[in-house]
């Protein structure tokens, strides 16, 4: 049996009340909650060894540097990257994508093509549109079907020798769809294109092996996997990171500086200008260790149980439609006929239940279904079936009040 009660005790926030009710937190796709061990790591850093890294000869600086670099190795091992220096610390998924999109300005020419999926978060659309505007490259879209899956036959048709880059999320934040990224990567490589996978939603729910995937770039945020906000990573194959120009100039990313010429530092420092989020990096490593102490396979199996249970209960409600029924993780996006998602979300909040309402930064998906938005319940491994019951009861109450 999955030890959910023991796990819940690790998360202080789960004990709190909201509007006089026990919190039911089903907004995990937006951000996950933080276990005490990660909170302790943050307090420990600022209480005991807060110092700037890589430069100091003094003990605190060396301690902070060691812990920060240890976190990089934790990430490298967790994702099976070939080298620790292929793991670039960033402020999150959005930052990581912008770094690659910015770098590709120098690698693309007019007439080149780049391909995006229809299932993307805005942060994996807009930077590429900006890149296309800068370079004259053409942005093409892999369409989706009613089930919320990508239409892969069309992907085959879009790919050509002109394709230079394909970007797609591993899991859709709006629907939970798990995309066939193995196939996407393999086919892109056949035409010589690189692939960036947005793993913001996959990293919390499944094991990911960068070398097995043979992915060129993979990006994610710490705050969706029990870590702090303002922290994330860009994984890039060494050959790609060497090809890309630096994103920002400044301290830390240089080898030598004169007023005539600067030479850049090697990886990972070339992409880590300025004082980084030292504490965030360390806490990210602790968060990954924490998740591994439970086991991502066990987490995935338990979340599947929650997904099945929640889906079954929701399907019993008349007039309720679930969007995205393809192979997916523990995200349920739905609407109730004749009721605005925001109204339901507000009543659920009064009952202590936190869900997301709106377009989930994925307006093209909402446009596809011709809806303004959905209500999204996204489960994590510290949620329970009892919480789903509270949510369903609350939802029924909201529907009664709003009908
Ligand atoms: N991509 C996906 C699939 C996401 O779910 C999110 C966060 N909602 C992002 C990108 C952006 O992540 P961040 O805001 O942490 O940069």
UniProtKB/TrEMBL annotation:
Family: Belongs to the class-V pyridoxal-phosphate-dependent aminotransferase family. Csd subfamily.
Residue ranges constituting the Aminotransferase class V domain according to the UniProt record: 24-391
Entry cofactors: pyridoxal 5'-phosphate
Name recorded for this polypeptide: Cysteine desulfurase
Entry keyword Transferase: yes
Entry's Gene Ontology molecular function annotations: transaminase activity
Keywords, in A-Z order: Aminotransferase, Pyridoxal phosphate, Transferase
EC number: 2.8.1.7
Pfam family, one: Aminotran_5
Entry keyword annotation includes Transferase: yes
UniProt xrefs under SUPFAM superfamilies: PLP-dependent transferases
InterPro entries, A to Z: Aminotrans_V_dom, Aminotrans_V_PyrdxlP_BS, Cys_dSase_SufS, Cysteine_dSase, PyrdxlP-dep_Trfase, PyrdxlP-dep_Trfase_major, PyrdxlP-dep_Trfase_small
Catalytic activity: (sulfur carrier)-H + L-cysteine = (sulfur carrier)-SH + L-alanine
Stated role: Catalyzes the removal of elemental sulfur and selenium atoms from L-cysteine, L-cystine, L-selenocysteine, and L-selenocystine to produce L-alanine.
